[in-house]
Predict the 3D structure of the following.
Amino acid sequence: MKIESLVFLVPGAFFLLMAIIYGALTGFQELVGFPAILLSAGLAFMIGIYFRMLAKRHGVREEDRDDAEIADLAGDQGLYAPWSWWPFVLGLGAALSFVALAVGFWIMVPAVIVSLIGLLGWVFEYSTGRFSH
């Protein structure tokens, strides 16, 4: 996970440096570019720090070792639900929100409702019914 964290931490440092340079060149008066670059740096840093925390929690993985064999990764890789319809509902909510941007802001209300239903259904899919644990 250390390499994955560097994939985000290095661009985050670049964006932070570019935000400072951009802000200095515009006198910190430009209210779109400087915050956008600064937010890009923040988002990259958040993901990079999260991957760094995962690296501490999980230790060295088979993917990180040079002497690892392909068979070392055999077995379960996680729990996936190929029959789930909740991603479709969440995508429908996202599509409705984009339609709201183009047609009218009033469509955002049903878009948020559909998105919340899809998100909650997907998150709690294994908390109720036959597959609860």
Remarks:
- The two ends are 29 Å apart (CA to CA).
- The chain is about 60% helix and 0% strand.
